[in-house]
Amino acid sequence: MAAAMAVSRSLRSLLTRRVMAPTPPSLSLSLRPMSSIAQDVTSTAAPRDAPDHNYESLRVTAAQKHILHVQLNRPEKRNAMNRAFWREMVECFNKIAQDPDCRAVVISGAGKLFTAGIDLMDMASEILQPQGDDVARTSWYLRSLISKYQETFSVIEKCPKPVIAAIHGACIGAGVDLITACDIRYCAQDAFFQVKEVDIGLAADVGTLQRLPKVIGNQSLVNELAFTCRKMMADEALGSGLVSRVFPDEVQMLDAAFTLAAEISTKSPVAVQSTKINLVYSRNHSVTEGLNYTATWNMSMLQTQDIVKSVQAAVEKKELKDVTFSKL
Hints:
This protein is an alpha/beta fold. Helices cover 50% and strands 13% of the residues. The chain contains 13 helices and 10 strands. The protein has helices at residues 2-18, 34-41, 83-97, 120-128, 135-158, 174-180, 208-216, 219-228, 234-240, 250-265, 269-283, 287-301, 305-315, and strands at 48-49, 58-64, 67-72, 104-109, 163-167, 170-172, 184-188, 192-194, 232-233, 245-247. Helix 2 (34-41) packs across helix 10. Isomerization of 3-trans,5-cis-dienoyl-CoA to 2-trans,4-trans-dienoyl-CoA. Keywords: Acetylation, Fatty acid metabolism, Isomerase, Lipid metabolism, Peroxisome.
């Protein structure tokens, strides 16, 4: 403890010499709860369509500074996932991953529910009448097709920007595949979740069976949900760890999701995105492998000026929303 206090005093002294300047009284700030930070960051302007994001099945808006809102946007079809959706999600999140202005993403469904899952009417011919002259060639085609569909949700996980899923109403079938690839999940009280694939004669193959056990940490419950296709209601989803918070309705849920995204966006993008990358890696590797990966990662990331800026803000009792971090 004494050593830690000594290090703290030394760091404070070093930063004071290097970067601190007297703060005019008019600019002095007091510490406030993080919720107030998010409220200050929240823009009162109406969302505007994000440039370079024009899709048939999605709508992407710049909801607030550094925050993109991705909506499943086929409300007349219960946001069922058609052929365009499987292609456009990959394009959308690849662009977001490379967008230096974006620091957090909220994904939700337009209309009365999150998603009814795969659009069977639109996808039937591609799945039930696959190409190929014989069993071997047809199998190669199907494997390639399934791998392509898997990327539709894996691209969310690969995107270094934190992705918050905000779910209301039904989240069925491929919807569960989608949300389990997200980093944080909120839902409204009317939400329910259903691993539906067995009821249509197949095993889920685009992420649920691989990610859901790691998300909720209860293999027995995962097996029950997958074998029976029963609905998991919002309270059970909260108790099992599938979602971290439940809200009375969609409006309050979305407000909370954007408040959370705003809070995340005030922090160093180097720190936040490095954290996501290391969390995803460590989930699939041993503790030793994860520690080794983090050491290798941070041997370069520790050289960022974001550390100096963040610690300086703490010393000066400033809020991170008042710190300008370079784009990443």
